[in-house]
């Protein structure tokens, strides 16, 4: 899915008030959380490279949910690939 902020997916199924935005920068996937009820989350937190998410998950002590449950690399890569394909098709489309 995509809106004015960029590509996103819902990290918690059924919760449409929270979105995980994804982008590709210099070959790396980055994530940024948006929450409708807490807009400061978006304002106060920048884009996180997946490596940072993995480092946080490695320090995860087993209390609560692992950070990896929200940051889904497979979904992010699929969204990035789909967007790349759309852009390539737009460039290669015959002009009217």
| Unreliable residue runs | none
Q: How many beta-strand segments?
A: 5
Main beta sheet: 5 strands, antiparallel
Q: Structural class per helix/strand content?
A: alpha+beta
Strands in their spatial order, largest beta sheet? 1-2-3-4-5
How many helical elements?
Answer: 3
How widely separated are the two ends? 28 Å
Helix and strand element order? EEEEHEHH
Structural domain tally: 1
Work out the strand percent. Answer: 25-35%
CA radius of gyration: 15 Å
* Helix residue percentage: 25-40%
**Shape category:** globular
Q: Give the overall pLDDT as a whole number.
A: 91
Structure description:
With 96 residues, the chain is α+β, with helices and mostly antiparallel strands. The chain has one domain (2-92). Helices cover 35% and strands 25% of the residues. The chain contains three helices and five strands. A five-stranded antiparallel beta sheet has the order 1-2-3-4-5. A hairpin with a 2-residue loop joins β1 (2-3) and β2. The longest helix is centred in the C-terminal third of the chain and has 20 residues, at 73-92. The chain is globular and about 55 Å long. The two termini are 28 Å apart. The mean pLDDT is 91.
Short description:
With 96 residues, the chain is of the alpha+beta class.
Please tag this protein with its features.
five-stranded antiparallel β-sheet, alpha+beta, 96 residues
